[in-house]
Amino acid sequence: MPERRYSAEEVDAAVAALADGERFAHAQEIVTHAAPGLQRILGEALQAGGFFEPAHEGEIDRVSSIETLEERRAAVAVLLAEEARVAMLVGVAVGLELAAELESSGPGGREGEEGQ
After folding, report:
1. Half-sphere exposure of 66 toward its Cβ, with a 13 Å CA cutoff?
2. CB within 8 A of 103, min separation 6: which ones?
3. Which of 116, 110, 80 is nearest to 2 (CA)?
4. Which residues of 41-71 are buried (b: 16+ CB within 10 A; e: fewer)?
């Protein structure tokens, strides 16, 4: 069975639905429960993607060696923002796959339908 594709409108509607406090609270409960495993997966994905390779280490060294406090603070802020963006994108990808896995393995999911 082919994977379902989502339109931009469907994604926009789903993102808007996250504004519902109850729905987001449930998502937070799930993530809190799964946090240790998700953190391990995120670290592995970042490592596999080369994010912690010598280029990244070199950037840490470069930023930490900037002499003026103002420039160093600005460079650290940029580095942290870049790391947050990469982690968020990987996290979203993991979340999408987790949702697909839950859908396929849960009651009425694709795997559950195969035996019927």
Report:
1. 15
2. 109, 110
3. 110
4. bbeebbeeeebeeeebeeeeeebeeeeeeee
Cα distances (angstroms) measured from residue 28 to each of 20, 35, 92, 101: 12, 10, 14, 18
In a domain, 1, yes or no: no
Task: Note whether 78 and 86 are within 8 A (CB).
Answer: no
CA R_g for the chain: 19
For residue 77, tell me if it sits in a domain. yes
pLDDT digits (tens, 9 = 90+) for 27-67: 788 888 988 988 888 888 777 877 777 888 888 999 999 99
Q: Number of structural domains, the chain? A: 1
Report yes or no on whether pTM surpasses 0.70. Answer: no
